[in-house]
Design goal:
The chain is mainly alpha-helical. It has helices at residues 7-12, 19-44, 51-72, 87-111, 118-121, 129-139, 142-155, 164-180, 188-208, 212-233. It has 10 helices and no strands.
Amino acid sequence: MKFEVNPTFEKSRHEPYRWGSRWGMAALALFIFYSAQIATVAIVGQENWNSLWMVGAHGITGAALLLLVLVQHRNSGGIRALAGHNIGRALRSGLPLIVVAYVVGMFLDVKLGFNREPFMANLLSKFSTGQIVLFLVMLVVLPPLSEELLFRQFLIRLFPITKRSWQWVGVIVVATVFMLTHGQYKNWPSFLLLGCLGVILGVARIATGGLVAPILLHSFAEVAGMTSDLVLANFE
């Protein structure tokens, strides 16, 4: 996967970089992202909070950020402006890279004796079959939507990514933030994996000029993550 000039970037080259509006939108997106989840915890109650509510909170966050995107692009094509181009090519390149990243991550976990992440062991232990199915469906839809809107839309646009000299800077900085915000992970191979995923998703965002490819790749990564956890469970 590589960076290429596409019609979205070609059009935006003539638009000035307005740092004030971009930083303002990013700050508002961050506020929405975290305040919606904090509010959900407060409403549900800490004693009732579980992983099902956690992914459900991403649905609330994703809907709010989607509305913010519509406001942001109301005069430039709306949500269709974020579809992107050459999505199939990005998926053909990104999907194998995600598989390799997870295989390497599992290898490191087993060889170095880390095995499963502690929080994954009890993730679904108290759920019924129906709740597990609901959780898995929500997992592949809601966190990819909310996180890609935050990281690969609002945060990556803090950098003038239509300029080639800034593209890798934006990808790496946002991937690092993406990695560090997943504090539920404890093993360093998991953070390495998250950093690699952040880079793959960022490159897909810039290469296609849209969010469809990174959202789909993120959804696939959720499936790969649950699958790798099942594999690691057999080594315990």
